[in-house]
Amino acid sequence: MRRRTFLKSPGLLAFPFAVASPARADDERELLVCVFLRGGADGLNIVVPFADPGYYQLRPTIGVATPGEPEGVVDLDGFFGLHPCLAPLNRHYVDGSLALVHATGLRGGSHSHFEAQDFMERGITESTGDADGWVNRFLAAASPTAGDPDQIRGVSFGTALPLSMRGGVELLALRSLDDVGLSPGGPRGQLLAQALEAVYAATTPLDAAAQQALASIETIGAIGETPRTPANGASYPNSTFGTRFSDLAALIDADVDLEAAWIDMHGWDDHAAENASLPARLDDLARTLDAFATDMDGRMSRITIAVLSEFGRRAYENASGGTDHGFGNAMMFLGGGVEGGRVYGNWPGLGGGELAFHGDLPVTTDCRTVLSEYMRKRRGLADIAAVFPDFVEDPELGLFKNL
Question: I want to staple 310 with a disulfide (CB 3.0 to 4.6 A). Which of 117, 306, 379, 396 is the partner?
Fold first, then answer.
């Protein structure tokens, strides 16, 4: 973000940021990266229950072909398979670093995008209660950090800080690393910097926050200006999503000790012609996550990527070759702390008597059950109620390794 744009963005000004000093070797952070598929991704065509007889009955034209057929699913366990455009992720499933959860979501959710995203980002199932986000509450409740006041504990990539990251912990929102720095440059930029420093020269809390942000923006910009070659031959897609993960890798290289990151991916509301639109997004998702895991290599032992959406799609296709808003969905977890190579959850089946509402996949595993297990095993957080105040936990799935 240009500094002049920063001054016009009260949401960002309310969340000042700074770059931490380099991390110590004995103080490596555990990083949670949340990928949010906005629009309600079709989990039934992402993690495909090809052996359930109801699947092809409900989806005679948009169902993904069985393994071995042209454009058929990548068989995982004889029952579930990955959409063929997710094939780059199969090696992570095989090596045990990718786990999938099906028939998951928020119990008591909504079929409205606005309401469902609000509930998912707040981590609650009622309209009342905490107005801040579950990621922010998680960072507030997590074990204290090393005490560096300038640490960037969390970052989101987008035009504004998402609801999930709003709250009492100061977090950072970025459009991209290429859009950080002074404008104009040269002598005029120096004069602008001096003017801004003079404007915020007082000692009020707002001035202190602005001083911290203005002092940091040049350092953040320097990270983006420094050419970086991904490690191990990794190649990120030339897409907004791919660029955001490439930027995240640069921040990790800069030792800013991130604990949480949030990356949105838009466009998953497939009401029509799903087979024409879904493959390109899945290809972008798979190639980006595979590139990031390749790039990070051994550092993935302390990184967990969670892929989620506000709700799934209806079990049966509509007359437009798409799917309408549904309920239960699939989630992905990728990282060295994952007990992967499995599809977790209690599969309810796709028979008519097993569907919820007007034909939706039910939610048999509340997504907060899985996220709570991550917080407990990978971050040592005991007080889950501080993060999910209206949640009564189910038994753990055993999806994560103890740190």
Answer: 117
Where are the extended beta strands (E) located within 128-250? 154-157, 172-174
Please, what is the average pLDDT of the chain? 86
What is the C-alpha separation between 165 and 280, in angstroms, rounded?
28
- How sure is the predictor about 125, in pLDDT bands with cuts at 50, 70 and 90? confident
Cα–Cα distance between 323 and 358 in angstroms, integer? 13
Average pLDDT in the 194-200 region?
A: 65
Establish whether the linkage from the previous residue to 22 is cis, with ω within 30° of 0. Answer: no
List, in sequence order, every beta strand (DSSP E) within 83-217.
98-105, 154-157, 172-174
**What number of other Cβ atoms are within 10 A of residue 341's Cβ?**
16
Structural domains in the chain, CATH included, are: 33-179+228-386 (3.40.720)
CA distance 400 to 41: 24
pTM of the full structure: 0.87
Calculate the CA dihedral of residues 381, 383, 389, 391 and round it to 10 degrees: 80
For 271, half-sphere exposure in the C-beta direction (CA atoms, 13 angstrom radius) is 2
Tokens of 332: 């992905």
Predicted local distance difference test score (pLDDT) of residue 393: 84
